[in-house]
Design brief:
The chain is an all-beta fold. The chain has one domain. 0% of the residues lie in helices and 38% in strands. It contains no helices and 5 strands.
Length: 71
């Protein structure tokens, strides 16, 4: 599926790596949330992927598209 900016979707947070993960995020692994495509990552290991924002109550952050499994 081709994603566009501001597209919303539900996905489970399944990070490929956890060694650089914020410790507060570890409790959210394997849980479903609503996400929104926000911007294209311009550099680093996730270059070219969508950065997806999560605005669930009590949880505000972003994840690269590859760390999300759509449901």
């Amino acid at each position: 599926m081709i994603m566009k900016q501001y597209d919303k979707f539900r996905a489970v947070f399944k990070p490929k790596r956890i060694d650089d993960l914020n410790p507060d995020c570890k409790q959210h692994i394997g849980k479903p949330y609503e996400w929104q495509a926000s911007w294209i990552i311009e550099s680093g290991q996730y270059e070219g992927q969508w950065a997806c924002m999560n605005n669930e109550p009590g949880l505000i952050g972003w994840a690269p598209e590859c760390d999300l499994m759509r449901i």
